[in-house]
Amino acid sequence: MAIITNAPRGTQDVLPAQSGKWQYVEQKALDVAGLFGFREIRFPTFEHTELFHRSVGDTTDVVQKEMYTFQDKGGRSITLRPEGTAGTMRAILQNGLLNDVMPLKVSYVTSCFRYEKPQAGRLREFHQFGVEMVGSAAPAADAQTIAVAKTIFDSLGITGLELEINSIGCPECRANYHEALKAYFRSHYEELCETCRERLDKNPMRILDCKNPACAELAKDAPVVLDYICDDCKTHFEGLKKHLEAMGIAYQVNPTIVRGLDYYTRTVFEFVATGIGAQGTVCGGGRYDGLIELLGGQPTPSIGFAMGLERLLLVMEQCGCEFPPDQGCTIYLGSMGEAAALKASELCMRLRDEGFYAECDIVGRSVKAQMKYADKLHAKYSCILGDNELEAGKVRVKRMDSGETEEVSLEADAFIRFIYAGTLDELTDETDGILGSISKIKGE
Ligand code: ATP
Ligand code: MG
């Protein structure tokens, strides 16, 4: 039978050599968000299709063109999440989290699915880190949320991202803007793409982020929303700027940002990279004061963002950011004969309890082949146990880089103490052992 070797277009494998980078970035993002009080939420990969129609919006590209929607065997319409906010809000409402202390702050790492044209930085299954802050209408909340993203970029060593902010007003002032947009685009009706002609009356702002080149060209000269926002929205926007300045976060006002999802109100923002090609937006977010009400909850002002992790990693490569090295093998405990193999296996378990990466023979290799394998692992130490060593209760341990050897007792605590002393310079708090007994040996 032929082997299936091709994954669907627009998907990507993360191989063991790369997965450390993903773990690092995801953990860093979660940790930084934690410093602002965000805690992780996990929600399903698929939801009722209706959720995205109502939240993301019927006239958006995401809903009209990009969703993976199918009927399940029970005849329900199901959609793979194209983004994380809708599922998060659904989970918050369903689980009554709005009764807790406000603001509620959650973060997530998720895969998202959009049927798009795959290219660099644009996939059909991609990954986002996001945060949502629910229950504050104040501009300080917008600024704190933006600060989470900024701190994540800084802590990863990313430079050269530009923060662009805009306000797209509230439903009241947006009505005037919609009229102005309709008038403008109506006078260019013939140049609009099919989809945008339909959007013109229902949701003219969506034309502004249409990817069709003719529409994008027209959008350049369209009226800008900042000229239409009401005094309250203006005050909010000025408040945001003041808070950003107080936190030392540089920004640029970009009046053309409208974002591609319908639920946004007032603040919208993006972090944009210049060097990774056309898909330069690494992070996008904004305020969505009407969303929870739209989903059937009490009106609850909220703000959030999502960053694309594939694009984030592209930017990190481009900036030459450093990633922590994978944990190298500390020791290979080879053996000859069954009794020695059992002893090696016992010592390995003890070493792992202490947080060391230890390996022994699980293939039944010859001694020569075992040494070769230890070389391939780049193990720091190796040794071979045999009947003689068991009898003497000692083994010669070799430092693989220098070839130096030393006789070490096979008594577990003594053995661990030796390994511990030899790796002292490399140990961090995290390597303090899953059972924490290194501290015991250290005598703390
Ligand atoms: P774009 O304008 O690039 O299509 P978007 O406005 O559709 O982005 P959002 O819905 O705001 O994107 O998603 C937030 C982030 O998720 C984006 O800034 C981007 O980094 C990432 N992202 C969105 N779509 C994709 C995709 N198809 N592949 C990879 N990353 C994506
Ligand atoms: Mg998009």
In short:
The chain is of the alpha+beta class and 444 residues long. 39% of the residues lie in helices and 20% in strands.
How would you characterize the overall build of this protein?
The chain is of the alpha+beta class and 444 residues long. It has two domains: 16-170 and 229-319, 2-Layer Sandwich (BirA Bifunctional Protein, domain 2); 331-442, Rossmann fold, CATH 3.40.50.800. 39% of the residues lie in helices and 20% in strands. An eight-stranded mixed β-sheet has the order 1-5-6-11-10-9-7-8. Helix 1 (16-35) runs antiparallel to helix 5 and helix 5 runs parallel beside helix 9. Residues 429-437 have low confidence and may be disordered. Adenosine-5'-triphosphate (ATP) binds at residues 83, 114, 116, 121-123, 126, 128, 260-261, 279, 281-284, 306-308, 310-311.
